[in-house]
Amino acid sequence: MRASKLFFPTQKENPAEAEAASHKLMIRAGLVRQLAAGLYIYLPLGLRVINKVNKIIREEMSAIGAQELSMPVLQPAEIWQESGRYSEIGEEMFRLRDRGGRDMVLGMTHEEIVTWLAAREIRSYRDLPQVWYQIQTKLRDEARPKSGVLRTREFIMKDSYSFDADEEALEKSYQLHIQAYKRIFGRAGVRFYMVESDPGMMGGATAHEFMAPSSAGEDEVALCPACGYAANMELARSQPAQPQFPAAGMKEIETPNARTIEQVSAFLNVTPDLLIKSLLLITDAGPVLAMVRGDQELMESKLARLIGGYRLAEPAEIKEITGAGTGFTGPLKLAIRKVADKGLEEGVYIVGANRNGFHVGGVVPGQDFQAEFADIRRVRQGEKCPHCNASLKLERCIEIGNIFKLGVKYSQPLGASYLDERGKEKPVIMGSYGIGPARVAAAAIEQLADEMGIVWPPAIAPFAAHLVLVQPADSRQAAMAQKLYSELMSSGIEVLLDDRAVSPGVKFAEAELLGCPVRVTVGKRAIAGGAVEVQLRRGGEEYKFEAGVAAREIIGLLKTLEGEAECESASEESS
RNA sequence: CGGGGCGUGGCGCAGCUUGGUAGCGCGCUUGCUUUGGGAGCAAGAGGCCGGCGGUUCAAAUCCGCCCGCCCCGACCA
């Protein structure tokens, strides 16, 4: 491709609305343009990158026997009513009506549709297993689109769906996907972790996420550097250090005006980990008291899995339910549902007395009050791994892929069943597996970019080589560049030839901004010395190759680069 | 949905407090020069100041409503 013909509107300055590095650079390098909140146009360079990612995905999906198909984005609401998600999912789903007045939706995912298909076409155990996948547009009316291409309302997604006869076979499909995903992200050149995750609205028991470490990410994961334990914070576990507890034996303590954990601990001159933080919450089923240790925080998603949706009680409600003002809430003599963090099962604590100006010391949970004990606290950096006692590390990540064991969540309501060897009808056991190609590209930018611009992993770069023709008007330079260009192209190397009549500074700066793995310079030095200069975008290493062998050398260099750039799973790297 | 910020040529911004001629840098066009790190000189083009309404002799500027975009939080297959 000649730069003089390529549409790649670059910008020197960062766009005002961009925050994330990938967002700024994708706009500056002319990869994307924003149409509206969460809606992006992919320009030629951006599309090339997405297509590279998709090509890797197709190869690896095909390698595990998955078959590509395509499904409608516009879908009848009926199917979503049958699965139950029409009412479960709120405003996040785009809903509309066709001219005949039928309720329709725009697909945010395709479990329902693919299961509808399976219900009609899979009849026998002989038809199983199947893995079908699609790389298609999905739509979600996101509450808050953000960070450029990382969270959008319309996006391309690879989704695959496995259909198996039983749990054992599902496990096999699941493992195959894990392998494929590791190969895909590895080849794409992004660092990633595979972590345990919350199945959420997808349903099912087991789920994992593939997480690319980046400060631009929205998720946080807990990682054990020793045994490899890795989990999304939504369900990560830990063993916190236990403090020295005082003797048991309840006694009321006067704590005038000491309401917060800090105030009470300062007033009584004890560390916050000897207190219990009691939060009064309101659910549809009435008030719930949630308790965590004074120095810890409630992990709201963990609690929500246990008690459903909730909100904090208003001061008036606290007064009404506990009989005291805010800051003196505690579990004693309170006849409502109580959930205490598992870490509180042992120890002796100070709790609110449900009486203004008082706390109660020497309280033994499980003895002085009853509660459901469950893991509802937020894991903190440095706490001990639940498996091996090493210190956990917390890291922000971009979710680039996820895999779920769905079981019969969709096959049952939508009637996807088969006849087994004995002629008995059984539900198909399903799994679902997603990858966001745009997130993979953005994660690569986040992880590798420098002050000058993007640094693409070779496998997903829009071009393998960026050939800078310094002075197109000089016929000797033009001829040398043209020859090299043709040689590389005929060997299947994708080259961007910068033949524009702009100053050299612009060409070099833009080559760095675009981030292709190697830059080849043909200028007056190449004419004088007979050798072209080659510089690696990543690391900046420079080479000189004689004009006659330059093409061959560059091809060899690219091959080496691609091999080197393959990322192992980041978690395996550390173990 | 709650909280905050922003909206002025294509991009980045100033002007708004204290109402009166719309400005800067980059980019763009033309010409000449230049050509290994975002070139120089000269001449130009380009803006219903997000929208509607109000106050005023007069509104980018003051007031009200609305819209859009970004950030934090809630939400998130």
Helix/strand-derived class?
alpha+beta
Estimate the helix proportion, in percent: 25-40%
Count of folded domains: 3
Looking at CATH, the homologous superfamily of the largest domain is: Bira Bifunctional Protein, Domain 2
- Name the shape in a single word: globular
Write down the overall mean pLDDT: 93
CATH domain class name of the largest domain: Alpha Beta
What does the main sheet amount to?
9 strands, mixed
What value does the Rg take, in angstroms? 29 Å
CATH architecture of the largest domain: 2-Layer Sandwich
The separation of the N and C termini measures 43 Å
Explained architecture:
It contains 16 helices and 29 strands. The chain folds into three domains: 48-225 and 394-446, BirA Bifunctional Protein, domain 2 (2-Layer Sandwich), CATH 3.30.930; 251-374, YbaK protein (Alpha-Beta Complex), CATH 3.90.960; 463-565, Rossmann fold. The chain is α+β, with helices and mostly antiparallel strands and 575 residues long. A hairpin with a 5-residue loop joins strand 5 and strand 6 (103-106). It is 29% helix and 27% strand. Strands 3, 7, 8, 9, 10, 11, 12, 21 and 24 form a nine-stranded mixed beta sheet that branches. A five-stranded mixed beta sheet has the order 16-14-15-17-20. Strands 26-25-27-28-29 form a five-stranded mixed beta sheet, sandwiched between helices. It is globular, with a radius of gyration of 29 Å. The chain binds one RNA strand of 77 nucleotides through residues 9, 11-19, 34, 36-37, 85, 89-92, 108-109, 111, 138, 140, 142-144, 146, 151, 157, 159, 200-202, 218, 300, 402, 404, 432, 434, 468, 470-471, 473-474, 501-510, 512, 521, 523-525, 533.
